[in-house]
Write a structure and sequence with these properties.
With 296 residues, the protein is α/β, with parallel strands linked by helices. The protein has a domain of 201 residues: Rossmann fold. Strands 1, 2, 3, 4, 5, 6, 7, 8, 9, 10 and 11 form an 11-stranded mixed sheet that branches. Strand 3 and strand 4 form a beta hairpin. Helix 2 crosses helix 5. It is globular and about 60 Å long.
Length: 296
Amino acid sequence: MADTGAIGIVGGTGLYDLDGLTDQRWVRIDSPFGAPSDELLFGKLGAQRVVFLPRHGRGHRIPPDEINYRANIDALKRAGATSVVSVSAVGSLRAELPPGTFVLVDQFIDRTLRGPKSFFGTGLVAHVSMAHPTCGRLRGQLATAAGELALPHQAGGTYVVMEGPQFSSLAESRMHIGLGADVIGMTNMPEAKLAREAELCYATVAMVTDFDCWHPDHDHVQVADVIKVMTANAQHARALLARVIPRLGGAVEPCPHGCDRALESAVMTAPEVRDPALVRKLDAVAGRVLQPAVAS
């Protein structure tokens, strides 16, 4: 059977204790974009290869605005990931999405100020489409698995990404509701943009921990309360991942939504004027289109 690639998981430490995860080993993956948040945990769930990356590092050492998102996505691609499931804690902006609900995000609003937000730059310009920023194939499988487990969930939703590390002001929380967002968090941008540039299928499981400060009964978010809900959410997330990972497989066939071909017509810079140093840095992310195999 052909190697179908690994399923990448980005999230918190509690997610790594999956029942049935075998052949576990932590491996350092070097990236030309700097140091990833941590080593990567390789393992297998049945026959499916899995690669976990602690987004904030083990022990939650790195705040959201200091994460090296480029190194994280590059390292996952180098580790053989073809799909990435992001598991993230969020606040709810809707009364019908109480703490404990999982939102399978299909849209983002990026309000972060952090950078850089692209693997590309001067000397090698590319523009990928973000019209549909998450993979419908992954999202559908996650929704099916969540339904089978009777987990409270919503298939689809808009995630507004704020800078952090502070929580929202009341005015900001009301503004985000006015923007049409369903949940708010601090980590999925530029992560989703970089995953698209790396031609990875990407999906977000947004786990609601609180109502943000717009809610009259939750007018100030307390870390202790968030952690309590996060513990319960992590247990449900582990069950969801254990159910869905064996079904996902890698990119055996072209993604029906084109995630694995996002760079097909995105590179604008003519080959003769591309920055050779940047081309080399992009060997994992964009080697498929920048350095096509020479027919023998």
